[in-house]
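Risk register update: the risk of archive-format incompatibility is retired. Evidence:
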Amino acid sequence: MANTREVTVGAPDDLGLREVLIDGRPVGGVWSDQELWRLLRREGVTDGDPVQWQWLGGDANVWPDRAWMRRTTGFFVVIGLVATSCPLFRIGIADTGSALTYGGRIAGFTIVFVAVVVLIAAAAAVDFWETRRWRYSGVVVLLGVVIALICGISILLLQIGENFTAYTVSGVALAVWASITLFELIKSRAWKGLSIPKNIAIGVIISTVLAAANLAYSQIYIPYVTTPLIQTGAAFKESNLDNRTGKLYVTVNMYVRNAGQVPVYVLGSTYWIRGEPAKSKPADKKSRSELIYDGEFVSPDGRVLNPGEEVAQDAVIEVKDPAPGKFEAITAQSEVYVIRKDRMRMTGNYESARVTGKSLKNSLKEGDPPNPQYRFRTGISNSSEILNATRGPQCVTVWRLGGNAPTVIVDVSPPDKRFRFDPRKPPLNQRAIERYGLTQVRGSMAQTPYPELLEKAGAADKGATPPPTPTPTPRPPLPAL
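Archived output:
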């Protein structure tokens, strides 16, 4: 019987699929007797051909497959994998083009690649729960589900300490679905088609790992840990005395310079001029230093200060009743508040977000700083889309308080979470310091003897008194260093 075909039907696997071999050659798997005959006819074995049957693990009546349960399981696995790939594609594509750092863009391309793998796993799931024509379909589905589980756990870890968002629900649902699916795949021994290669290119793997580690260190870690180097200060220039009004005018120069390698936004600036009381006064009449003038010197508000760039302003300060012995010295000091540009971007027009006067007074709520001079508030975006997804919308709010001790308060928080002013706490938000590099930079104090100012002013031309300018006029930035 040379023309007799030998057909071997293997034992049912965990899902009820039975592998079929014709003349010792694997031709596929079948779930039922009907599928077996369709497979045989497709391979050229007709009903009238002589066949030598060999049944393993059960005869022709053993078909344990439950089609409705198998297809329902496969349907939910495919839906879960497709649902996982959609946000991965959205986040990855957004970061490849708009992430603020090189590392963020590399992460974006990586997320897009992972999304493609998950989408391939969804296609492999159709084969795994239907025909099983591809021997590695179970391994690919297993890989996709493991990725989904890692994504769900990562979202939940990133959500710790954050506001409850839609991504929190997605993370919980994804972690639960992936855990159940992973259990089902392990029970079905989905890794059976994986063959371990005998020879592995160790040298290639080591070289790739070293190159990736060097890239991560030089292009991601080093830029992240590099801190901004912002310098600010004040210096006294000429002084003039107006004999007609009896007022003393002192010119003070303020500057801020980015001497580091990280661009920053200047959220606020302030300077103050004080008169220090003479130490020769009786102890029972000693007084604190007197605030002569305070103001801002960086404009426009929220401007970017790139590495090597400097902003400087001259201000003419008026000292009323400059009687000899009134002060021992005049001091000047400047302060700026900056935030790293490589960790966030302004989504609104910060310069036009200033609120003052009656509008500010009417908008104050319980917990806001008392009697502020102005307030800025605008939305910000994080350095990557994955941070936007897990942290939710954020706003930066800047308050300036007047009085004898001018203060600037900066807070970064969600729009629906108001920062409550507490005079016992520092004026900067600690979480914003860690996340966005929010920094308060105070320059060294410049001091000049008061008698010396009067002496120089008296020696100047009495007819060349400069006009008072309470608000400094912006001056173009100096050339980059």
